[in-house]
Design brief:
elongated, single chain
Length: 324
């Protein structure tokens, strides 16, 4: 496990060294560029040749360093894999030994007696004690790993801090100016996002208000629709009752007409006062029923129109709700 941690630290150190060399190389070329700009008016071919030779030399060194880095990376990867396998084997062995040790503890505890009561320990007490001990062991293991990670992180940060202190002031200034520009750019983007967010919040608020108003109106229309449905059912019931009465009245009228025809065939109406009176009463009753039928038809037509209007309003409200 320690060898694995050392290999990880070495790999991290190699990556940091590579990054530092690239920064130093960039700073070197920048300084060379500045020096070349200052002495550009001389136009010395010898200096140009020397600079090209140095450039090719540095590029060859850089290529060699990259090749060496790749080889070391492969070597370290292989070593890390080997150490990881060994670590896994050690962990499995340690887990087996721990389980055997805990089992031995449990067996010893089952055969032990309490010093106060002189009786064997209850199984649930033994189980509780073993579980607590396992929990403590797990906490200790976690804290040890965390301690190792923190130590490695501390060493890495100290190493980075030491290397940063060795960098030139010019590089720090360049990094500071670059970070300053990036910070300004990010602040502008944040302001733009905040403006967009405020617009979206206003739009959401307006939409919620409109939706709440539509919901309230829909609830009112639904309640009114239910009331109209109840009234329509009552009217339909009354119309059905009146229709039954009308049918019975028509049947009675037809029966009376048939009887009247038979009577008229047998004898005339002259001199038969009760028949005349009855005829007049039937005629008046017929007119009253006819008028009542006309009124009921008109009322039924009005009710049907009101129902159709309510259905159209409900469909319009549902369309508006679906559109929103």
């Amino acid at each position: 496990m320690l060898r694995y941690q050392q290999l990880l630290e070495e790999g991290s150190t190699m990556r940091e060294n590579n990054s530092q060399l690239q920064h130093k190389l960039a700073e070197f070329f920048k300084r060379k560029k500045t020096d070349n700009g200052a002495g550009k008016h001389e136009h010395d071919p010898k200096n140009v040749t020397d600079q090209e030779e140095r450039y090719h030399k540095y590029m060859a060194n850089l290529k060699g360093l990259k090749t060496e880095q790749e080889a070391m990376k492969e070597m370290y990867a292989q070593q890390i894999e080997e150490v990881r396998q060994k670590c896994q084997e050690k962990l499995q062995q340690a887990q087996q030994e721990t389980e055997a040790f805990m089992k031995l503890k449990e067996e010893v505890a089952q055969k032990s007696y309490s010093s106060r009561t002189g009786r064997p320990f209850p199984p649930h007490d033994i189980e509780s004690y073993i579980q607590r001990e396992k929990q403590k062991e797990l906490e200790v293991t976690t804290m040890r790993l965390e301690n190792i990670q923190l130590k490695n992180k501390l060493k890495k940060q100290e190493h980075l801090l030491k290397e940063k202190e060795e960098l030139s002031e010019g590089l720090h200034l360049i990094d500071f100016e670059q970070l300053k520009i990036e910070n300004q750019t990010y602040n502008e983007k944040i302001e733009e996002r905040n403006e967009e967010l405020m617009k979206l919040r206003k739009k959401i608020t307006n939409t919620v208000q409109v939706l709440t108003h539509v919901k309230q109106k829909l609830q009112f229309v639904q309640v009114e629709n239910e009331e109209q449905k109840i009234g329509l059912k009552d009217i339909e019931t009354k119309v059905s009752q009146k229709r039954d009465i009308l049918n019975r009245t028509k049947q009675a009228k037809d029966a009376l007409r048939v009887d009247n025809q038979h009577l008229q065939q047998k004898c005339g109406m002259l001199g038969n006062d009760p028949l005349l009176y009855d005829y007049e009463e039937r005629k008046d009753e017929k007119e009253e029923l006819t008028n009542l039928l006309q009124k009921l038809k008109i009322k039924h037509t009005d009710t049907t129109l009101n129902c159709n209007k309510l259905h159209r309003k409900i469909e319009g409200a549902e369309k508006v709700t679906a559109t929103n």
